[in-house]
Amino acid sequence: MIKWSDAAISDLDDILSYFINKDEEPTGRRTTRQILKSTRRLKTSPFSGRPGYIAGTREIVIRKIPYIIVYTVLEKNITEVLRIMHTARLWPPDENEWQRDERH
């Protein structure tokens, strides 16, 4: 099972809104679909992502688009997507910023 944190859902919404505001809705929809598709493997292979920069996290670097899916494995078959980060952003953020960004 894959859970999504409120912050990750907000990130996904922000990505789509960014492209819509640039009058590039089809690109935004393709990008968000690719992100969602990339998380599917977590159902069967929760440890498939690389170890994350923040303790207790793992990361999926998405090919062909500049985003990283940050997630944690809660139990054997339960993962939680924590954030969707653009690769141009400072990553990892300092600990205070990470906690502040967990806004929901």
SS content category: alpha+beta
Assigned CATH architecture: 2-Layer Sandwich
- Count of runs of 4 or more consecutive helical residues: 3
- The share of residues in extended strands comes to 25-35%
Main beta sheet: strand number and arrangement? 5 strands, mixed
**CATH superfamily grouping:** RelE-like
Question: At the first level of CATH, what is the class?
Answer: Alpha Beta
Number of domains: 1
Any overview of this molecule?
The structure is a single chain. The chain has 104 residues and is α+β, with helices and mostly antiparallel strands. The chain has one domain: RelE-like (YaeB-like fold, 2-Layer Sandwich). Strand 3 and strand 4 form a beta hairpin. The radius of gyration is 13 Å and the shape is globular. It starts with a strand and ends with a helix. The relative contact order is 0.21. The C terminus is likely disordered.
Please outline what is shown here.
The protein has helices spanning 6-21, 25-39, 95-101; strands at residues 2-4, 50-51, 58-61, 67-75, 78-86. It has a single domain (2-87), classed as YaeB-like fold (2-Layer Sandwich). With 104 residues, the chain is of the alpha+beta class.
List the helices and strands and how they pair.
Layout: E1 2-4, H1 6-21, H2 25-39, E2 50-51, E3 58-61, E4 67-75, E5 78-86, H3 95-101
Parallel strand pairs: 1-5
Antiparallel strand pairs: 2-3, 3-4, 4-5
Helix pairs in contact: 1-2
